[in-house]
Amino acid sequence: MSTPTVKVFVPSDTTARSLGADAVAAAIAAEARKRGTPVDIVRNGSRGLYWLEPLVEVDVAGVRHAYGPVGTADVGGLFAANFLAGGKHALALGPTEKIEYLARQTRLTFARVGVIDPLSLDDYRAHGGFRGLTNALKMTGEQIVAAVTDSGLRGRGGAAFPTGIKWKTVLGAPSDQKYVVCNADEGDSGTFADRMIMESDPYVLIEGMTIAGLAVGATRGFVYIRCEYPQAIATMRAAIERATAAGFLGERIQGGDRGFRLEVREAAGAYICGEETSLLESLEGKRGMVRYRPPLPAIKGLFGKPTALNNVLSFASVPIVLDKGAEFYKNYGVGRSRGTVTIQLAGNVKRGGLIEVPFGPPLREILYDFGGGTASGRPIRAVQAGGPLGAYVHPSQFDIAFDYEQFAAAGAMVGHGGLVVFDDTVDMGEQARFAMEFCAVESCGKCTPCRIGAVRGVEVIDRIRSGVNETANLVLLKELCETMVVGSLCALGGMAPFPVLSVLKHFPEDLRSSTVSNDSVAVERRA
Amino acid sequence: MTADSQRDADIRRLAEARATEPGALLPILHAIQDELGFVPESAVGIVAEVLNLSRAEIHGVVTFYHFFRTQPTGKHTLYLCRAEACQSMGARALEAHARKRLGVDFHGTTADGRFTLEPVYCLGNCACSPAVMVDETVYGRVTPERFDEIVS
Q: Are A228 and B139 an interchain contact pair (Cβ–Cβ within 8 Å)?
């Protein structure tokens, strides 16, 4: 008589590993050997319940039970408590899917993330993978574009431009060669959704980009991934190799007459290359200098050819649209924000992680019901929404709903879905200064308002904070912000003033009364 | 062959192997830095020749991107995140601790040659801040004590 080997899942994503998941996996393997209990350790991706990582799951009669956060010291006790059969233990969380944080979510784009072995094509297919591509192969480019347009999907990178309309432009641009480019230069602090897709479900990105290629008539694609994500780069490269070998990519997709080649390109640490025209320059082997628009990348993009350029999450949301239909996707959400939003809850928060829900919940629900308030236990003072170029949201605004238009009306932005929580020990004057400092470090230097304005912004803020001509310098700061907003060529210089202006509006006391901290670093510039 | 001429031959080999790829320059510079640890001055002329570009164009690209280094570094590179999520969890204090503990400023290499300290703006580990990365290994929830363990 033989009992089947128990499957134990130990996440392998960057965050889980940053908290010791590899050592936990090794400890479980060693303990199992010691006890003569065979286990099958699967390195899945992360469910995104990051405060519980390393989150170990055990398959008990087809239902996954969770334990976490597990340290190596807990492993012996887990075996003693018979966790392989779902035994009781202080770290036991019950069936994973019933954990409230996860049960309250609607995982469409992230349906497989944390569930499957990221590189297993069998797992991917067993969980609905490649169904969208199979459907797309039977459709014309126009039909695919229509489906994506009807789904209401808008660019998840931050600009929220309708994906279908962008693709339609590429489809209608005659050319001997077209490209599909994925912007995986996820540089916003507080965001990690792109990384999670690439590390935990890489085939969904490959499938989405391939569908884009079929839609617009492109035969070649690039994934431009930031070099700060070595694991995402390695996983994507391995996935592309396997998908090509299995006939899902290459000259003849699934044996048919259409082809799509895909490769990873590694970025080199310039935040500005997340701006689409700068990214294209970088892919072409140049300095990441922003281009004037028009022409749009959809008309003249990579190497001057029509290019469908989208964020990771936009591409990763396409397979489910093609699998289940535009109506299915469109039925989620509110107003003109259709489908789901992937919120990344980060910073000083008790329960940080990935939250995919239909557009519409109030910010407060995300911060308190999901997040549980701050990690420090102190009151929330401010939340930066949408990355380093996003406004600091004041607690009086926490009732705004997660919806592109409602956020915009409140002077904030959904952006790429990142939320960075700060408690009441934060010095908002310091945060305003940092916004300008970051812009100065990362400016490509092409336009004056951004290149010079950001440096002057740091100087003016320092003067205000040291009490030099405060009133006059506050006027100057507002004027400088206005100049940058209206005069900059791209979103970096054009939006870096937003966090500063939000501090001026909601936290003016921090900007006026404080002294400059001694450890603040001088603005550094690269030659 | 001297060490320098061997190195230049390596650079040429790495560049020529990728020269026909579209937009080959970044992949070439990555390959050089992966193999040599930095992009030496001599690479500018060699890569320019292989790609039929001007030295100015190569120099411009090498110096534009924060990731490319033109000087040798320590045995390990320690990237310390300075971005907002980490700031909310004490990254400014961690930064001060790191400078003091390692005895260097950003871009500096410790006296024993073990670590080069580099700033980084986000490692995507923002739900478990503050974060540092040593070479390609990321660490989360890094307290000053944990930092000392990582570098010791």
A: no
